[in-house]
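Take a look at the protein record below and flag anything odd:
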Amino acid sequence: MTAPLPPLLSLENLTIRLGNRTVVDDLTLQIKPGERLALVGESGSGKTITALSILRLLPNAKVQGKILLQGDDLQQQSIAQIRQVRGRDVAMIFQEPMSALNPLYSIGAQIIETLQLHEGLSPGEAREKTIRLLARTGIREPERRVDSFPHQLSGGQLQRAVIAMALACRPKLLIADEPTTALDMTVRARIVQLLLDLQEEELARGDGQGMAILLITHDLNLVRRFAQRVAVMEHGQLVESSSTDALFEQPQHPYTIKLLNSRPQREIAEVPASAATLLHTQALRVEYAKKIAGWRGWFRHDRFIALEGASISLRAGETIGVVGESGSGKSTLAQAILNLIPVQGGALEFDGIAMQKRSKQQRRELRATLQVVFQDPFGSLSPRQTVQQIIGEGLALHFPALSATQRLTQIVEVLGEVGLPTSALSRYPHEFSGGQRQRIAIARALVLKPRVVVLDEPTSALDVSIQNQILQLLVSLQKKHGLSYVLISHDLAVVNALAHRLYVLKDGVIVESGDTAELITRPQHPYTQSLVQASL
């Protein structure tokens, strides 16, 4: 009988304090060689703090307990020793690849640096290995991309480059912190499969133990597909740990049950057949100019077609979903609807009147009726304004006749509608959680009493339970005010919960449309089928 493998990583009675606050409390957890362990929980549960403590990346924290890597306590090692562990024995994939890479250096230079530091390779040897790593992670034309800068790559390519950097020295433990949150569903599926394939390769060419992966995520579908074991954290404490199948089939802790029940539920009201059409586009076309380098450095101008022949309609009280991969034209369609970019062809009508027939002043006035809620609430809210100033800004602009008292009354009223107290008025965005900031963004749009709201990935940055709360809020506001939504998302579960009808975009062209539930259940176009398959 084979003896069980000793743990690769052991966290023993780990307690982490930031100032006077305990963020991780007496955590004991183990990861075996070659194991895939998912660490799940809501924002603030201590997942990322735990991961950062492994590599001693919390300089201002007070850490107690033991962090044992193959029996060696990393807490007792010098900074010089820890630097040798980082990248060589333990590597990390951060949530946002653009912020994890230095924008002043090429992708190749940043990977080459890792190889030279830990493996002592010459510049030529390190460059050749970097090209092989990029090719191994699925980046096309690695000989050219090795000299590309981060801003020249797509989100999926950036994440692959970060994975290549993390795997450069064949680490024993790979920490993946929300590695797919910012990616669309098909790219997400490819990244997950890539991690599985790379782990299998390491297992085949190694000593039979293979690389262990610690996955930090709030995506329960990803956990079910990827992890062998799951550990659940709440308020810094480990509340449940078991095999993936056991946890999903028979969760024991009330918090785990709550997380599993937080998946989006479809509760939208039916749209009456007599509902008027508010918004209509016919064969909409959007082009962008681009420069292409030619012979001897000369540039020639060309046109990039971002949207071609897009025809959609939106009725009063209805939600339409727009899905597709990154670069499919979703955001371009939203900007065209909001009249933020010029269109080169087709027609756009609101309330039966063509946008082209409205004067500049009429289009400006229409902005109060057409509002938007952006993907990143922190980035879309001014850090220098209080909540009262943020919500009241639109009122002052579109309804200048209102007195200060009248504006304040409307601001307080809309805060109550989105579930925030009046005490929030004098506070700033950084003082709120992600879910609360998104409620502020919704309140800013709602206070103008719009008829159409464009929702651009409104829940992608939120964990599952907060996501569900925001979706329920949007449904209740729609029922109360008769709002119409244009929902842009790469999450089919969110779209299915909120949208009545669905449009599928690919390379700027609508390839399929119809009733949301029908289209997701029985997709006809091969591209739609691939999107649905990737979301399972």
Observations:
- The mean pLDDT is 88.
- The domain at 9-260 is CATH 3.40.50.300 (Rossmann fold).
